[in-house]
Known about the structure:
This protein is 31% helix and 18% strand. It has 16 helices and 22 strands. A hairpin with a 4-residue loop joins strand 5 and strand 6 (130-138).
Amino acid sequence: xxxxxxxxxxxxxxxxxxxxxxxLRNILGLNAKILEKGTAIGGVWHWNRxxxxxxxxxxxxxxxxxxxxxxxxxxxxxxxxDQSQMQLYLEAIAERYNLVSNIQLSTTVVSCEWSSVxxxxxxxxxxxxxxxxxxxxxxxxxxxxxxxxxxxxLDNFRGSIVxxxxxxxxxxxRNLRVGVVGTGSTGxxxxxxxxxxxxxxxxxxxSAQFIVPxxxxxxxxxxxxxxxxxxxxxxxxxRSTRVAxxxxxxxxxxxSVDEDTRRKIFEEYWHRGNGFKFMFETFGDIxxxxxxxxxxxxxxxxxxxxxxxxxxxxxxxxxxxLYAKRPVACNDYxxxxxxxxxxxxxxxxxxxxxxxxxxxxxxNGEEHSLDVLICATGFDAVxxxxxxxxxxxxxxxxxxxxxxxxxxxxxxxISNFPNLFMVYGPFSVFSNLACGIEAQVDYISDIxxxxxxxxxxxxxxxxxxxxWRDLCNQLAGYTLFPKVKSWIFGGNVKGExxxxxxxxxxxxxxxxxxxxxxxxxxxxLLFISREKGV
Length: 534
């Protein structure tokens, strides 16, 4: 098989991969190439084609900050962009910045091996193609390795089984009996989208979610004006914030105001919509102060009581845990359970027993006849995609290096793995992904430029990995997030060690740390002479 040699290989043609290719090819002038397993550009926005799929981060911030014109040319005028629009946007970016010819689709990478003799990575694809490169950038996606529910006999289920991350283009749910497993962000979107068209919808809920309205609307005049008159200044501001969602996070404690004022603020933001705004713009301590957290929980639970007619269903929909997961926003979620064709099953108590023919049988003997079972069961977040590729050097394997828990410096570099850079690897910043990706790719490109001038190979030090993990654990401990089982800590994957997967210090502080690293010539990194070795 022919061997192709380039300066850099990027794995993945999603948000991170496209930006990495743009920086490497168009800014650094390297011969770089993307290998993408999908049949189209887009990453998660190509794979996640389920009904109702939509970004729940507002469109004026879920985009590239280096490109001013593409959204306007595509006619973006909605507060939230759906899956098809987002994929069109990413395809348009690839065309505008001449990236298409450097992207190879339908190409699944199976192994990546570093040679300390050649000072090169060898990448092998499923088809047996061989690529060699000096720099390897993994833009695999933080949410791309799907998880299926554990149901005995599911292989024998006669109906259709689909995961929301691999949706069949020709699936027609009209007048069918449909079950949905999972009530996170994806599950909520699917449930509200299909309830009006299916014969009957059975929602299998493992844990109740705090869900606020999304507040779909057109972009405000102020938001549209950003692109025309205030583009650079807006992005400078947005990058300095904690979650980078286009607003200033509150510094006001929920318990510093009286109950009436607190309720008025919650009510205002409930009607405004957006989960991130409800969690971070109302008050500054909802995710850190148990009293503030309880106040927000009580308000949402009261809303559930007001909306949901059936008392038993309303009680099942009320979360019993802290409001400390990634905030979910979806219009008409609770209202959907007032429909006569929608029922709710609490699988935290009444668990799955088995599948038999077209029936899903529960532990209490209850049976549900289904034509389609939709698994909105999420992903083996962040590290899951790395388990599908054999990444190794001539002395180390990534699976062994991460056998107990993932390791990284800044979520980007790894010790013992030269010239390997991750886009949103373990311990990346917990923020708007689009902005976090840009921060990481900018840092990666600066390391590569610095390394090219030295003519060395580069990797994280082991102490830098330890220090970064310790800091991430410390910062997580200041919040309520570790007290709740969620994908943020790998809690949705059976057998996974629950550990911090993100940096919770906010994007603004994360960017300051990266800039400090630049100014001090990257002290977290080990630069290895190509002639003398370590």
